[in-house]
UniProtKB/TrEMBL annotation, chains A, B:
Belongs to the eukaryotic GSH synthase family. It comes from Camellia sinensis. The keyword ATP-binding applies. Residues 309-386 form the Glutathione synthase substrate-binding domain. Keywords: ATP-binding, Glutathione biosynthesis, Ligase, Magnesium, Metal-binding, Nucleotide-binding. This is Glutathione synthetase. Pfam families: GSH_synth_ATP, GSH_synthase. Binds 1 Mg(2+) ion per subunit. It is an enzyme of class 6 (ligase). GO terms for cellular component: cytosol.
Length: 555, 555
C-alpha cells in the first residue's frame, strides 16, 4: 500500500444491494451521500473580501523527518503537500515520538475492530452483499481536529433554524416548483422528483407528520474564520453511527494517553447522533399511532446503522427493502395505509434514493411514488428531498427570500451569515467573472453522490462550452464561492496504514425535526460528523484527496 | 463456499506476530489454545456403565426440507449427519420459517460487525499482522445451546474448588516433578518447562502473589447426563472477550424476536468473563504495590482483548511484547524487579507461550526464564502452567491423590464426580482394552494447541506401534475415556454463511484466583465459553468438525 488517495485499494462502505452504491462514482471515500465542494476562497462579491493565501513550499520544514513505523501494527507514510499551515494543529508532526504514534496506531486499530468502527473492503467481492465479511476498519484520523468553540456553537445553534426553514420551504409547493423550473429541463432526475411532487399537489396529498433527519455541512474559512455552509442534506444523511464511534475512539485515546498527549478528552463534544436519530424515528413511529406497524428502512448500509438497532430496542420492528422490492410487494390501501406483506408501514427511512443510480428502472420510480402516496411518515418526503437541492439552496441565498419563510430577524441573520456566495448560471456578471477567475469558484451540478464538482480551469472551460452550446444544460449547475479552509498536518488511518499528510476538515451538524399537524415534537441538533481530507494539490482544490472520519477538539 | 469444515476458507483468530500462531496446526477454529477431545463414550471401567447410543440414519427426517436462503445476507446450506438426536433442541430445523432464519442471519451478522464479534480472515494476508484489516465475523451459532440448569450450576460450583486445587498443587514441586518425570523424557517441551521449574526450586524462588485465570472445559455425557471434565486450562485461557459477546448477541436476538422464537433471553446466563478477568489483573497489579508499573501482555490476540482495554480504564498501562522482545529488552534488577525499557513490570499476562511453536529459538526460552526469575506476578507461573498439563490431570484422577491437596471431603467428592476416566500408558490393562475397543478411548498427547488428539482405529494403531518400538514415547500420551455428548440440530454461522448441521457442545467455565502470602483475594467463577462443533462423522469423533462460539440456554 502506498499513498492512500492514489491507491487502487480505495475503500467503500458497502451497500447490501449491488445495484445501489453510494460510492460508485467517486474515489473519495467520505464525500459520502452528498457531493461537497472541497475547497475555495475569495468569491468576487462585495460580501467576501478575503485574500488568497500564499502557498509556500513547506515540504522542507514539515517533512524533514519522515516517520516510518516498521512494526506490524501499521506503518506511517509521508505525503508531501505544498500548503501553508497558518494555525497550530493538534498533530504537529514534530511533537510526536514515533513509538508513541506506533502505540496510538495499534490501539486505535484494535479499538475500531472491537467497537464496530468498520466498513466493507471494496477488494473483497462479497463485502458489498453480505454483512460481517470482508471488513476493514473505517478510515479515521488518529487524533481529533481542533475547531474553535465559538464557531462550533454557531453551527449547533443553526441546526434548529435550518430544521424549521426546511419545513416551511417544503410547504411552499410553488416556490419549489418555480425555483426548480429551469433545472427540471436540464436535469432528468430532478424532473422525475418534481413530477411526483406535482402529482401529490394535484391530488391534494398533505404530509401531516413530517420527519427530517438532516445534516448541514460547513467549512471554516481560514482568512475570515467565518463558518460557511457547504450544503444541507435532507435525505440519507450519512455516518451518524460511525461519527459517534470516532468521537468515542478519540476520547478513549486521549484518556489513555493523557500524560503523553496533554489533551483533554472533555474538549471533544459528546456525539449523540445515533441515539437521537433513533429517538426521532421512534417518536415518528409512535406519532403514526397504529398498534401494529413497522419501520421500513429503504436501502440500507450495513456498517452505520446503530440507530435502526436502537429503534428495535424501543419495540419498533424494522424491515429492510430495496425500492424494487417495495414496488413488487407494496400495497396501498384506500385509506393511504402502506402494507408490505401483512405489515403496516409507519415510517419509511431512506438510506438511498437520492441519486439517479438508485433508480435503474421504472420499478424504483413506481416504488417512490407509491410511498409518497401513502400515509406513512417519509424521511424524507418528496418536498423535504427537493428542499435539499443545490438550486433551492442557491435560491434561498438570494436577497429577501429567507424572509418569505421565517419571521425572526435574528434567525434570518444567523442563517445568512453562514451562506457562502451562491449564484445561478443565468447571472451573467458572475459567469463572466468565473471565466476570468475560475480559481475562486466551484461549479456544482444538481446531480448528487459526491465527486461531481468542477474546480479550477475546468470551471472556465465548462462555462465557455455551455455559452457556445446555448442549451438549457446551464440550469443543471450552480456556482459557489470556493472556500479555503485551514490546512493542518494530520495522521490519517486507512487500510491499517497511518498516513502523515496535510489536510482540511468539514463539519457536518446532524439535526432532527418532527412535527404533526399541531405541534413541533422535536427540533434538535444531534451530534456531528467531522471529515478530514487530504489536501494534496492546489489544482482542483482537494477533490482528489481521500477523506477519513474525525472528531472535533474544541479550542 | 460449501460445507464449512471441509472448506479451504477456514478462519482463524489472527495473532499479530506471525511466528506465533495458536491455530497453525488445526483446521478446527475454536479448538482454541487447548486441544479438546471432541466426543467419546463408554469407558471400560467399572465407573462408567453407559450404553453406546444407537446411530440411526435420520437424514430422511431431519433433512427433508433443505433450507436455502437465496438472499444476499448469507445462505443456509444443509449438511447430512447420521447421529440420533435424543433431546429436544432449540434449533429444531422444522420449526423455523426460512424468512425468519434469513432475518436472524442478517441481523446477527450486522450485530457482530457492530460489536466487535470479529476475527482475522486467514485468506487476507495482513490479517495476522495488522489489527483492523481483513476482518470477518467470528464464527457463531445462530441460537444458544440448551443446557440443563443443574449441571450448569455444578460446573460453576466447581470453579473455585479447581482454583484452590491448582494453587495447592503448584506449591508441591516434588509432586509436579515426579508426575512429569517420564513425560520429561518423551516430551521436549515439557522438559524445558520442568528445567525452568527446577532452577527456580534450586534458587529458592517463591511466588508470593499468585494469579490464575483458568478455564475448565466440560462435556455433558448424553446417556448419564454426567458433567465430565475435558481439561483444565491454566495458561492463556482463550475467548473470554468473544464468549461474552456471543451471549450478548443471543440475548439481543432472543429479545428482538421473542414473539417468533418464544425463548426467554433471561435463560442465557450473564457472561462477565471479560470484566472479571480485567478485575483480577488489576487487583494483581495493585497487590504488587508499586506506584509506577505496568501490565505486560505477552503475545497478544487482536480480537479477544476487551479486558486489557478494561485494565486501561483502571489506570493500568498495558504494553505488548513478544517473548523475543522481552529477551531483547528485559532487565532484571537484583531485587527481582523486571524492567522493560524504563518501565517496571507488575503483571505478566500470557496470551501465548503454551506450545512449542511459541518458542522458535533459545531467545524465547531465555525470556520465559527471565520472567520466571522476576518478582512480577506471572499469569501463569511455571508451576501453574505445569499443573495444567494432561499428565498432572491424569495423576490427580488417581485414587487418594486429591486428598494430598484438599481437606474438605465434599469438595473432593465434587471434583471426583466430574473426572472422566484417565489412564497412563503404563497401565497395561487399560492399554490392552483400548487396543481391543479403541472407539471408547481418546489418546491425548502432552503437546498443546488443539487438533492433536487420536481417535478410533488410530488409537489401536498408535498403541500397537508404541508397544513394538518399546520407546519412552508412550509417556508423551495419556488415555482418556471418550465422552459422547448429545447431538442436536444447529445453525452455525461462518464466513457469512449459515450452515444447518448436527452438532455437539463443550462448556468452558472461566475462573479467576488471586492470593498473596496471607490471604485469598479473589476466587470466583467468571463467565463461560460455549463452543458448538459439527458432528459430521462417527469416525474419529468430531475432531474434523468446525467449531463456533455459542452461549448457554438453561433448561
Amino acid at each position: 500500500m502506498g499513498v492512500g488517495y492514489s491507491s487502487s485499494c480505495s475503500l467503500s462502505l458497502s451497500l447490501p444491494y449491488s445495484h445501489i452504491s453510494c460510492f460508485a462514482s467517486t474515489t473519495t471515500l467520505l464525500s459520502s451521500h452528498k457531493s461537497t465542494p472541497n475547497s475555495s476562497l475569495n468569491p468576487p462579491t462585495s460580501k467576501f473580501h478575503y485574500q488568497k493565501p500564499t502557498y509556500t513550499t513547506m515540504t522542507a520544514q514539515s517533512s524533514s523527518s519522515p516517520l516510518f513505523l516498521p512494526i506490524q501494527s501499521g506503518r506511517v507514510e509521508e505525503i508531501k503537500t505544498q500548503y501553508h499551515n497558518s494555525t497550530k494543529p493538534i498533530s504537529d508532526f514534530h511533537s510526536f515520538d514515533p513509538e508513541l504514534i506506533q502505540r496510538l496506531v495499534y490501539d486505535s486499530l484494535v479499538w475500531s475492530s472491537l467497537h464496530g468502527l468498520v466498513a466493507g473492503d471494496k477488494n473483497v467481492q462479497r463485502s458489498g452483499t453480505v454483512p460481517g465479511v470482508g471488513m476493514v476498519h473505517a478510515p479515521f484520523a488518529l487524533l481529533p481536529m481542533s475547531f474553535p468553540e465559538r464557531q462550533w456553537r454557531q453551527a449547533c445553534e443553526l441546526a434548529p433554524i435550518f430544521n424549521e426553514l426546511v419545513d416551511r420551504v417544503s410547504l411552499d409547493a410553488n416556490f419549489l416548483q418555480e425555483s426548480l423550473s429551469r433545472t427540471k429541463k436540464a436535469d432528468a432526475f430532478t424532473s422525475r422528483l418534481l413530477d411526483i411532487h406535482s402529482k401529490m399537489l394535484e391530488s391534494g396529498k398533505k404530509e401531516e407528520i413530517r420527519l427530517g433527519l438532516h445534516r448541514s455541512d460547513y467549512m471554516l474559512d481560514e482568512q475570515t474564520k467565518l463558518l460557511l455552509q457547504i450544503e444541507l442534506n435532507t435525505i440519507s444523511s450519512s455516518f451518524p453511527g460511525l461519527s459517534c464511534l470516532v468521537s468515542e475512539l478519540h476520547r478513549s485515546i486521549l484518556n489513555q494517553y493523557k500524560e503523553h498527549l496533554g489533551l483533554d478528552s472533555r474538549r471533544i463534544p459528546g456525539n449523540t447522533a445515533v441515539s437521537q436519530f433513533a429517538e426521532a424515528l421512534t417518536k415518528a413511529w409512535k406519532e403514526y399511532n397504529n398498534p401494529r406497524l413497522d419501520l421500513i428502512d429503504v436501502p440500507y448500509l450495513f456498517y452505520d446503522n446503530e440507530f435502526t438497532k436502537l429503534c428495535n430496542t424501543h419495540d419498533v420492528t424494522t424491515i429492510r427493502k430495496t425500492l424494487a422490492e417495495i414496488d413488487a410487494q407494496g400495497v396501498l390501501l384506500p385509506d393511504g395505509t402502506l402494507l408490505i406483506g401483512n405489515q403496516v408501514i409507519a415510517v419509511i427511512y431512506f438510506r438511498a434514493g437520492y441519486a439517479p443510480i438508485d433508480y435503474p428502472s421504472e420499478s424504483e420510480w413506481r416504488a417512490r411514488e407509491l410511498m409518497e402516496q401513502s400515509s406513512a411518515v417519509k424521511c424524507p418526503s418528496i418536498s423535504y428531498h427537493l428542499t435539499g437541492t443545490k438550486k433551492v439552496q442557491q435560491e434561498l441565498a438570494k436577497p429577501n427570500v429567507l424572509e418569505r419563510f421565517l419571521e425572526n430577524k435574528e434567525d434570518i441573520a444567523k442563517l445568512r451569515k453562514c451562506f457562502a456566495g451562491l449564484w445561478s448560471l443565468d447571472d451573467s456578471n458572475t459567469v463572466k467573472d468565473a471565466i476570468e477567475r475560475p480559481e475562486f469558484y466551484v461549479m456544482k451540478p444538481q446531480r448528487e453522490g459526491g465527486g461531481n464538482n468542477i474546480y479550477g480551469d475546468d470551471v472556465r472551460k465548462t462555462l465557455l462550452r455551455l455559452q457556445v452550446e446555448g442549451s438549457e444544460e446551464d440550469a443543471a449547475y450552480i456556482l459557489m464561492q470556493r472556500i479555503f479552509p485551514t490546512i493542518v498536518p494530520t495522521f490519517l488511518m486507512r487500510d491499517g496504514i497511518c498516513h502523515k499528510d496535510h489536510a482540511i476538515s468539514e463539519l457536518g451538524i446532524y439535526s432532527a425535526y418532527l412535527r404533526n399537524k399541531e405541534n413541533v415534537i422535536m427540533n434538535e441538533q444531534c451530534g456531528y460528523l467531522m471529515r478530514t481530507k487530504v489536501s494534496s494539490s492546489n489544482e482542483g482544490g482537494v477533490a482528489a484527496g481521500f477523506a477519513v472520519l474525525d472528531s472535533v477538539y474544541l479550542t
